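Two folds, back to back.
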Amino acid sequence: MLSARHVVDGGPSGRRAQRTTTQRESGPLATHGSSGVAYRYASALFDLAKDEKALPAVEKDVATLRALLEESADLRRLVGSPVFAAPDQIRALDAVMTRAGIGGLVANFIRVVARNRRLFAAPAMLEVFGDLVARDRGETVAVVTSAEPLSEAQMTALREALAEKAGGTVKLETKVDPSLIGGLIVKLGSRMIDTSVRTRLASLKSAMRSAA
């Protein structure tokens, strides 16, 4: 089972996570906006999942939890606010994860993170975990934000175009942000491509102010 010793200095997985974190942060993942805490915990979960040959199940549960956080503002507040006591956070998250069918390593991981008062960094930990899985498979993660959900045909075309740009396999992660109005924001590895109408309008407004 995953316990606190797997993500703190004292346990063997914790020490391994520290070493691998230093190595990983010197590579492409160093561009990620999260802190070293996120890398350390994500690395511990990734290493343990591989050790126990549970990576597919853990990846599935992580994806489910990320989707829940993306969809629920209340859940994001529960995770991000220091006002809630750890036992209350754990009880609430246990109920959410049970309903969503999330168990095993991921459920225990979240409990450890909550007990260690690091739950505010959980979204970043889950994202880093996804990056580690993708890199382990030789994939580049592309996070695509659009004003409306993309169709399967659009995602296929986009995946092919990005794979050509990346020079290899691309794992596509999609998000919806209606405030973009139109266009896309694509984060391909460390590169950002912003073609959103919102950004173009902001640039136009800035140019008009400068010309006034």
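---
second:
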Amino acid sequence: MRRAICPGSFDPVTNGHLDIFERASQMFDEIIISVFHNPGKDKAMFTMEERVEMLRDATKHIPNARVTCFSGLLNEFCRQEKAPFIVRGLRAFSDFEYEFQRALLIKIDNNLETVFIMTNANYSFLSSSGIRELATFGGCIHGLVPECVEDRIKSLVISKNNIRKRLSLMMIDRSTSATLDRIFDEMYNLISEANRIPLTDKIIIEESDLAGILDDLKEAIPKEVKSATRLLEEQKAIVTKAHEEADNIVLQAKTEADRILELAKSESERLMRQEEISKQAEAFAEDVKSTALRNQQEMKDEADAYVERVKHDVLQYADDMLGYLSGSLQSALQAVNDNRASVNAERESVMSSRPQRDMELLAMEEEEDEE
């Protein structure tokens, strides 16, 4: 597994750091982002624990990144983590000179290699010290650091500003009384301007000058002590008030949580009842549907049977009427034929008994009848 170390103080982590982490994560199977104590940066904004926490929050979208902290030699830490590569970000040529010297020192261990990654041009001006200074004086740091880090910095700056305001309100009026700082400065000046005894480390100080400084010190110390006492009392009152407010907040949160749980319980019961009613309605609807389909099929079967019976009766009636009409027509036809034969017989009899002239007239009448 190709594993690399990304060391730094990260006080605080910036978007420039994140850019290096993201690009390094594509080059190695695992990157270890390591926070270490930098002796040259004694005035840290955040503790190591806070920086580790912020880094874990800011890099949770990088699946192969791990955040930790260490102290001591970097090469020892690399051997401990079995990581033969060290990743460094470069912003300018000055960074390269500094990092080049460090890389040469690390090369004492032949098993370690330093990988330099040029920063994105959008973040070439970014530095943790610049962010600290910008935030301290109330500058905008939005878009320069991750959102989680921005919130922590703003909270820290606001807290420090509130403390400064509180202390400035509690301090004694420097325009009306001597302060310890001024008195000590006068004492140091008196010592530095005093006449030295040759060939010794001793000095000569006028008694009146020293007595004046001691008088000022005697006057200032009780006021400073009184101010400090008042400060402690006010701080104690603030802490007590904060505890009371915290207790009230906890009580309100508990009450609100109980209320929400009760509402959730009621809503859950209501939904369960509604679900039961819905199931019953669905079952009832299914029964109605089944009954309707069954009744529909029975009515259809009855209608089909009725149609068949009517059809059979109609056909039977039609057959009977047809037979009856056929018989009637044959009887009528037979009667007509019988009448025609009788008429013809009578005609022949008449014709045979009349003279010839009547026969001719009769023939003419027959012709006319036939026409």
